[in-house]
Structures are given as C-alpha cells and as structure tokens.
Amino acid sequence: MEANEITEALNRPISRELLARDVTRLAYVAQDGTPRNVPIAFTWNGSEIVMCTTMNAPKLASLSENPAVALTIDTEVHPPRILLIRGRAELDFVDGIPDEYLQPTSSYEMTAEQRVEWEAEVRSLYYDGMVRIVVTPTWAKLIDFETTLPSAVEELVRRREERQRA
Hints:
With 166 residues, the protein is α+β, with helices and mostly antiparallel strands. Helix content is 34%, strand content 34%.
C-alpha cells in the first residue's frame, strides 16, 4: 500500500474518530508460533500508534522476534465502524512512565481524586520504567458498512449486481 493511500484512509473523519478511542486490539505472533490478540490502550500522535506496557510483558520477546502486527480499532454500535491497521512494532524502553500512558483518554473517565490515586499507583508499580510499542502504519483500511465494506462483501455485492443485470 502506498503512503498516500494510508494517509487517505487514516484521515477520513470516521478514522479520526476511531483513532481518538482508547483501546485497540493488538495481534501478533507469540514465541510458540501461535497467534495472540490483546486489548491495549493506545494513543495516536498523527503518524504512529503508541501503546505502553510493562518491562516484563511476555509480548515484548515475541515482538522483538517478529515485529509484524495488526491492530483493530472498532465500535460497538450498528453499523460497526472498523479501522484495520498493519505495521511493524518498534520497542522503545523508557525510564519512568511514558507521557502517552499518563495522558487522559477520551472515554475512560475518572474523577480528579481517582486520577490522582491512579497516577500514584502507576508511578509506584512501574517505577523501573515501561516500554512504548510504536507502530507506524504500513497498511490501513476503514470499514464503515456505509461507504466501505470488507473486500469479501464487496465481491458479493459485485456478483449480485452482475446477476441482477443478467
């Protein structure tokens, strides 16, 4: 996929809404060769998806060995809106807590008191640091079931139209 196609897909209004959400599903291949898919908080900085994890997370060894990943960001409404992204994970070991991890999120709400308690817990728990998993998209597709469909459904629509014309 060309860079301009990726940019176009990610700059659509629905894509921007999805990129403002809090959780993605990170798919990768584990060290035993089996697939994994884990929900993980993320931020979009305009060019990269940034996820943060613990220094001892099992996924780090897997991502070091095979950095190919796929991400899904979606909604729970009808029609579903789905943003699919592929890329390579780069691991950035950070002393302390990455700024992205501490940023308030758009839909995960906390009172000011809860936020203070949460941040104190985070700083206490992750005192050794964290790892930023940074993914630059190399492929992206928005599926909104209004203007875009999964490729298999697009094919069925095309076949139905051919049958109806015949």
